[in-house]
Specification:
The complex is a heterodimer of chains A (324) and B (383). By secondary structure, chain A is mainly α. Helices cover 69% and strands 1% of the residues of chain A. Chain A is built from 12 helices and 2 strands; from the N terminus they run H-H-E-E-H-H-H-H-H-H-H-H-H-H. Chain A has a two-stranded antiparallel sheet. The two termini of chain A are 39 Å apart. Chain B has 2 domains: 80 residues, no CATH class; 231 residues, MetI-like fold (Orthogonal Bundle). In chain B, helix 5 crosses helix 11. The chains are: A mainly alpha (324), B mainly alpha (383).
């Protein structure tokens, strides 16, 4: 940029306008930046557009049967996606129902209750746990958790079968149920929900929390009357982000869930709901053209659901920041 | 906010002494510990007697029953001794600690389990497991005959290519998003945001349909896997870099502008260097996350029992893929090998993670992420 010498009229006291002449290098650089953003946008949008186009060809062939057929069985040409989609949602729901209360407790423990010296270690541990690959969680869950939870699951089915989700039409093995999957998925979600919740809680104004304590309130009183109301939106957003993560969880479901293919309300016991991610992983390559497009469509619906859930989550979280 | 009434049974406030020191409320006195331990013992004894009389053997159910009964006994005790507010406070304290510890135990046990099960396999014949390939794999063979060398090569090459493709593009796009405040840039930002939380399998599917399937027989390669990883990594790197670049103090830019620097020099010489450590952390933590992904490479890398150094030609192995394939083999030695491969995978991810944190914890440009710009449910980068 060159310093411009421009005559300033003496009688008017207005700032001199800065010339907006841009050098060639500047324009080239700006061009580079916008081009790269265009490329990123093109790549991401083409993912969405391409899958939509491929998925809709299945919709044209399969018509409404894709949504109303209660059975998913490509071998006998039943392409009811209901079981897969409900299964994916059920797993994410189980995971989030377990993960959110635990994460809020964990966040409160780290931020408010733990000794100050321990805090950086606890934070690092939680962050580290979020980095562990989900196939390792899945493998560990398959070897350890799914067996450990089978006993209690059987007990719940035996005593609470008056609740529809705990009823199972075909009692048998409990190690590979939707519930087992959700339980293991919750362990991958806990670190994420915890770290978001923790950061939201850390944003609560310190003077208000200290005032609450200074007025003689108990620590729990401070938590319920200041901290939780303040971070309510952030926790809700974290919940939705965790739910989106649970929806997209692939490897755990592939490893743990049994082969299910029909619509049912039961989440425990064998032979129940399927899962989109599992079905794509296991049967996509071998499937015929119709099965492939049906799977792409199922994947697309899952994808669209996570996009919607994540966008809502982001709006909620952004609103919560506006209060800061 | 409800204010505590003076709890019964506490000493009157200490008379003012000469010194003006704040009195610190001792939160956990021996008496409180005694109440807690007493309640726990009472609950454990009661439940044990009941379970023994009923002849039920259920360790999990027993644990839950003891905990619930303990909460009841302790609650009543605190309520009678200290009043309702103290009861709530104590119960909350106990619940939060118990739930947190109960959550940390399985989470930490993942790491311990991988070490206990995997280290003996991976370190049995020390460097052998790290450089041998899987060509000697057989259901009856010893675990010391094979190794994950080919898989390590594949993972490193694929993640490296993905990095080369995604990181410069992501950082440039992030710079654009920070610098420009138009409707278009907000749209790009929203798309990037939404994509950070997309299911990993979608990216694998996308690359399979657009790259592997049209190539017929030789479509599966390390490069195809790298493409899927790059598409997945792109929104993550863009989001976290945008975060890092946007916290570069405005005063620095303004100072550079006031000195007459053109915009591109402000960015290249002031903004990006200031953010470089944060950017490095963002990239490395993104890599740590990508390196462990199985779903995007499942259809695309193909897997290979032998070494294949060329990512552009022929199928290639990959660590997570190798774990996945070993788990589904019906022999006990394959499961042991899967633990060994998991151990190597976790070790790799851990090393990357520690490097990222180490860089992030040093020097200027140290970043402090706020939750809101943390990319959607899927970035696992810390603060």
């Amino acid at each position: 940029m060159t310093v411009v010498d421009r005559p300033v009229e003496a009688h008017e006291d207005v700032p001199a306008a800065i010339p907006r002449s841009r050098s060639l290098a500047d324009r080239l650089f700006q061009g580079l930046l916008s081009t790269s953003s265009g490329v990123v946008l093109a790549i991401l949008l083409s993912t969405i557009v391409f899958l939509t186009v491929r998925g809709f060809s299945a919709l044209r062939i399969g018509k409404l049967g894709l949504l109303t057929d209660p059975i998913w069985s490509p071998d006998s040409h039943h392409f009811g996606m209901g079981s897969l989609l409900i299964g994916s949602f059920a797993i994410a729901l189980v995971a989030i129902v377990i993960a959110v209360p635990v994460s809020v407790c964990l966040a409160l423990m780290i931020n408010e209750y733990s000794p100050k010296r321990l805090r950086p270690w606890l934070v690092s541990t939680v962050d580290l746990l979020a980095t562990i690959p989900s196939i390792v969680y899945g493998f560990w869950g398959l070897e350890l958790v799914s067996n450990l939870q089978a006993g209690p699951a059987e007990w719940i089915v035996a005593h609470f079968s008056f609740i529809p989700i705990f009823r199972t039409p075909t009692p048998g093995s409990y190690v590979d149920s939707v519930f087992a999957c959700g339980l293991i998925c919750s362990l991958t979600i806990i670190p994420i929900v915890t770290s978001i919740t923790r950061e939201v809680m850390a944003l609560a104004p310190r003077d208000v929390t200290e005032a609450a304590l200074g007025l003689g309130g108990t620590r729990w009183g401070m938590v319920t009357d200041v901290l939780l109301p303040f971070s309510r939106n952030g926790i809700l957003g974290a919940t939705l982000l965790g739910f989106g993560r649970g929806l997209g969880e692939t490897m755990i479901v592939v490893l743990v869930l049994s082969q299910g293919n029909h619509v049912t309300a039961a989440i425990m016991g064998p032979n129940g709901l399927g899962s989109v991610a599992k079905e794509i992983t296991e049967n996509f390559e071998a499937g015929d053209a119709l099965a492939k497009s049906a799977l792409v469509l199922a994947g697309l619906v899952l994808f669209a659901s996570t996009l919607v859930v994540n966008s809502i989550a982001r709006v909620i979280v952004e609103r919560s920041e506006a209060k800061v | 906010m409800t204010v505590l009434e003076s709890p019964t049974g506490t000493a009157p406030p200490a008379p003012p002494t000469g010194k003006d020191v704040p009195t610190r409320k001792q939160s956990f006195t021996p008496a409180a510990a005694f109440e807690m331990v007493g309640s726990l013992v009472a609950a454990a004894a009661t439940v044990w007697v009941i379970f023994a009389l009923a002849g039920v053997k259920a360790p999990f159910g027993m644990g839950v029953s003891i905990f619930l009964l303990f909460l009841c006994i302790y609650g009543v005790l605190c309520w009678r001794l200290h009043g309702v507010l103290h009861m709530k406070d104590r119960l909350a304290l106990v619940t939060i600690w118990s739930v947190s510890l109960a959550a940390l135990v399985p989470l930490v046990s993942v790491i311990l389990f991988v070490i206990i099960k995997g280290a003996p396999v991976a370190l049995a014949d020390f460097p052998h497991f790290f450089y041998a390939d899987m060509s000697q794999l057989s259901p009856t063979g010893s675990v010391t005959e094979v190794g994950v060398g080919a898989a390590i090569v594949g993972t490193v090459e694929q993640v490296g290519i993905a990095m080369v493709l995604a990181v410069p593009l992501g950082i440039l796009c992030a710079t654009f998003l920070v610098e420009s405040r138009s409707v278009y840039s907000r749209f790009v930002g929203n798309v990037v945001d939404a994509m950070t939380g997309a299911p990993a399998i979608i990216f694998g599917l996308f690359v399979y349909l657009t790259w592997v399937a049209p190539h017929k027989t030789n479509g599966k390669s390390g490069f195809a896997a790298a493409l899927a990883l790059a598409v997945m990594m792109l929104p993550i790197v863009t989001r976290t870099s945008q975060e890092v670049i946007s916290i570069v103090p405005g005063s620095l830019r303004e100072a550079a502008a006031a000195l007459g620097a053109p915009r591109w020099r402000i960015l290249v010489r002031v903004v990006l260097p200031t953010a470089r450590i944060g950017l490095a952390t963002a990239v490395i933590l993104g890599v740590a996350r990508i390196a462990g992904e199985t779903a995007p490479i499942l259809f695309n890398a193909g897997g290979n029992n032998h070494y294949n150094w060329n990512p552009f030609k022929g199928q290639q192995d990959n660590l997570p893929l190798r774990v996945y394939e070993l788990i589904f083999q019906p022999s006990a030695s394959a499961i042991r090998l899967a633990w060994g491969a998991s151990f190597v995978l976790v070790l790799l991810v851990l090393i990357i993670f520690v490097i990222g944190r180490f860089i992030g914890a040093s020097g200027p440009g140290k970043r402090r992420l706020t939750f809101i710009r943390r990319s959607g449910g899927s970035t696992d980068d810390g603060v």
